[in-house]
User: What shape does this take?
Amino acid sequence: MSCIFCRIVAGEVPAEVVAREPEVVAFLDVQPLADGHVLVVPRAHVAQLEDLEPAAADALFRAVVHLAGPVREALGAAGTTIGVNNGEATGQTVPHVHVHIVPRWPGDGAGSIHTIFPRRTKRTLPDVGAAIRARLE
Ligand code: 5GP
Ligand code: ZN
Assistant: This one.
């Protein structure tokens, strides 16, 4: 088993685990962006979000919802930024789905999700909307 998160889930590699559930494990990021930076992972090895089985997806998002308040309160934070790097092109470095929960404080120097994008759009909203709806049919 070469996946580092599979090894953490299996207990083979130590991690500061904060929650263990039947389908999900949550532990502290070893290189935290802020105190209380938690990673929530499905137990099953899946590289990208869209490959999750429905039950695993349900369990993952439920765990994120369950953890968001306690993580924020434990750190005395004002909010949390919650995000997923989904695919290598996005900066995902560990190919096992993980949701980042990062506590936030006013004036902490970090931006919103909007600040990571240079906003180089080329297409109209109706064009893009139609393309996505066609894929969903
Ligand atoms: P990504 O860039 O793939 O969204 O984030 C991967 C995260 O996993 C990084 O923030 C990194 O610090 C964290 N990470 C990588 N290896 C380990 C590890 O062995 N243990 C823990 N706890 N976190 C890790
Ligand atoms: Zn894995």
About this structure: Residues 3, 5-6, 45, 96 surround zinc ion (ligand 2) (CB under 6 Å). The beta strands are 17-20, 24-28, 38-42, 79-83, 99-104. The chain has a mean pLDDT of 97.
